Amino acid sequence: MTAAAVAPARQTFGETFRLLVFGRGLPAAFFGWLAYLQLQSLIGDIRILPRPVTPFAVVDGPLPAFLYLLFCAIPVVIYVGRPPPQKRDGRLAPRTLALVATVFVLIIGALPPGPALYTPPPWIRGLSTLLSILAFTTIISALLYLRRSLSLIPEARRLVVGGPYRMVRHPLYAAEILATLAFAMASGTVLVVAIQLPFIAMQLVRSRYEERLLSEVFPQYAAYASATPRIVPFL
């Protein structure tokens, strides 16, 4: 993990206001609201645990819900103290794409059921749970390494190459794809399955926007990118 020693330019009042409201306040409030909703869901999962409690019941219920709660809660802390970026991509396309893809990850479980493409057997549901746990564990690890460099839209604050970023250049995007694929496996509905390819395409395009910005700000990014896969480890 490395950081560029570039001092940020002095901010105007408008830039400071935008950082406080749109760069910190609103994102923190949004993720805080999601964390509250997920906390209620986690409490419900704990209440319906069978007695006596078994490890399988915890893995199949409260554990994924707890990891998703961390996925929502950690960004609250990050956004509250996030510094201004050295540079951002302020174009409409990257901003819109980032917002749509992020909202999709957060609300996929709330999509209407619709017609079923197939009925997942128990082993598929079990595999889906394990993949979900792997995905959200990776997301939490990436968030802890990113810390105050987290951003939804392409922004450059600090070059992070440690932890899960040693495996792929975009572990958050890779884990989010894995999480939605796991949900699609367990859901089996036409709508959830059909939107997987568009979502993967959005994540790939987001990664390209981000990489272009990072290459402009951090000269060492090219060497890191040439030695590290984009999304899929070892490829």
Attribute tags:
two-stranded antiparallel ribbon; 2 domains; single chain; Four Helix Bundle (Hemerythrin (Met), subunit A); 235 residues; 9 helices; disordered N terminus; mainly alpha
What do these coordinates show?
It is a single chain. It is built from nine helices and two strands. With about 240 residues, the chain is mainly α. It has two domains: about 10-85; about 90-235, Up-down Bundle (Four Helix Bundle (Hemerythrin (Met), subunit A)), CATH 1.20.120.1630. Strands 1-2 form a two-stranded antiparallel sheet. The protein is globular, with a radius of gyration of 19 Å. It starts with 12 loop residues before the first helix and ends in an 8-residue tail after the last helix. Mean pLDDT is about 90; it is low at about 1-10.
